[in-house]
Amino acid sequence: MTGETDLPKLLASMTPQLLAGTYVFATLAPDTPVPAKLDPVMQFREREGLTLIVTEDEAKAAGLAGTFRCRMITLDIHSSLEAVGFLAAITARLAAAGMGVNPVSAFYHDHLFVPADRAEEALAILQRLAADSGNFPSLLVGEGVAEGDG
Fold first, then answer.
1. pLDDT tens profile 78-136
2. Is residue 127 classed as helix, strand or coil in its secondary structure?
């Protein structure tokens, strides 16, 4: 399965799911092994160190300083890794609401890490974007935010 590439279909068919738990971003120095008690939902190696996304509780238990308290929203549609504009449309809509987001693409789905205190708002914005896209397939973010959205 290669996933969906059609942008209007991706936007109209995505079902954003707000997952339980609060996450943080943490980092380990280069060549430092991940502590056994950690189960990161994401890890990415950069030359400065290893970035981890872990639950806030796991970070505290491991003595890691976490930053960016966030919640994870999974976009429940199998998006292709080659899809063009999907995350751009989503992040632009959240940016229009003054909200930062850290997106992560995995093989089957895209995941958004949004500020913990604005997670419900982000979910509502994404649900509205999906509904708007289903009603107006040509209404894409490249043409601006839909009229009436705030």
1. 887 777 778 888 999 999 999 999 999 888 888 999 999 999 999 999 999 888 876 54
2. helix
- Residue of 118, 116, 6, 122 lying closest to 75 (CA atoms): 122
The secondary structure of residue 141, as a DSSP letter, is: G
Query: Is residue 76 situated within a structural domain?
Result: yes
For the chain, what is the domain count?
Answer: 1
Q: Max Cα separation, the chain? A: 50
49 torsion bin: left (phi>0), alpha (psi -120 to 50), beta (else)? left
Range of the domain at 69: 7-140
Domain with 72 in it: what CATH number? 3.30.2130.10
Residue 150 CB contacts under 8 Å (≥ 6 apart), including other chains: 97
The reply to whether 79 falls in a domain is yes
Give the integer Cα–Cα distance in Å for 25 and 129. 27
